[in-house]
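In this section we walk through a basic example: taking a raw amino acid sequence and producing a predicted 3D structure, encoded as discrete structure tokens. The instruction is simple. Fold the sequence below.
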Amino acid sequence: MKANISLAVIVIVFSGFFLIQAVRLPMGSVERIGPGAWPLVILCLMLILGVVLLIKELIKHKKHSGLQMDKTAEAQTEETPIEMEVVYPYKHWIVLAVAAGYVLVLPVIGFIVATPLLMLAAAFVLGLKHIGKLITLSLTSSLVFNYIFIVLLSVPLPRGAGIFRSLSIFVY
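The resulting token sequence is shown next.
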């Protein structure tokens, strides 16, 4: 509980400080997002979530301190740590290898083709086994990423080589 309160205060101070710095950056216009827009959005979200966490933990702390627990119940809750069994301890390394493979094939097959494959592989490694959900997740997330980077941010993405380049040019 104290750790969450400390974390909330740190997040509030951090985001508040950098929010002041981000306001000084140019925001851009309606047509083009400036360099200060995304930091402002992210820092505002961090500040809001930090305040929500702080309020939630203070309410929990107030309820907890208002209740009088007998010493036996308190001793039981303090001395019984929950041990969790790690089922697949190496999944993060597999996801890291998939991401490294994504970075390697990105210049060859392009963002349009590589991103759905990355999403598909990562979701599969992390435990999503239903083929319909895998395909839906990979295609939906790829469309969202394409829209964000290509349309909203106007970021030039790797188009790939050969037929993949032709496909990318056809799509955008």
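Looking at the output, two observations stand out. Residues 91-171 form one domain. The chain has two domains: 2-70, 91-171. In the next section we compare this with other chains.
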